[in-house]
Write a structure and sequence with these properties.
This protein is mainly alpha-helical. The protein is built from five helices and three strands, in the order H-E-H-H-E-E-H-H.
């Protein structure tokens, strides 16, 4: 790991810790759609910027690792969203991932970091920082959309104002 990738790794670690801590505890799900997409889209945008700033050409191995990473992120996002607990309390909707969701997040991160390691061993630089951010953002966006869908089905009052 070079000195340039150390800040990326620290940012990804900090985001993962913050997200996991927030999603393990009961949190109110806001009625605004921005609550679902704002953070993940910013994360995806930062990752795409890093990918674009570092690479002008993507080889076959780059594309394969990006597609595999995106697929793993989407599958883990759907699974995490489906096992999330959603409750209605006093007219408000709350959610958390719980232990099954934590297990899915840990498995996703292990697989995703394994892909980054394989990419590093193969000399595929796209498998590092930016791709991790894009993958994590896609995972969180998918998970949030599934959770919001569950919430809207469970609570009749859960509509955009």
């Amino acid at each position: 790991m070079s000195f340039g990738t150390l800040p990326n790794a620290l940012v990804v670690i900090a985001i993962v810790i913050a997200v996991v801590a927030r999603r393990l505890s009961w949190s109110e799900l806001d009625n605004a759609n921005a609550d679902v997409w704002r953070g993940p889209v910013i994360l995806i945008g930062a990752g795409v910027y890093q990918l674009y700033a570092r690479h002008t050409y993507l080889g076959a191995a780059d594309v394969i690792l990006l597609v595999i990473g995106a697929g793993v992120a989407l599958v883990a996002g759907v699974a995490g969203g489906r096992v999330a607990q959603v409750e209605r309390r006093a007219g408000k909707v709350f959610y958390r991932l719980g232990l099954p969701g934590l297990g899915i997040m840990v498995a996703y991160l292990v697989i995703r970091l394994g892909l980054a390691g394989v990419g590093h061993l193969l000399g595929v630089p796209v498998a590092e920082g930016g791709a991790l951010m894009v993958s994590l953002g896609a995972n969180l966006l998918t998970q949030s959309m599934i959770i919001q869908g569950k919430a809207s089905r469970m609570a009749e009052e859960y509509t955009n104002q």
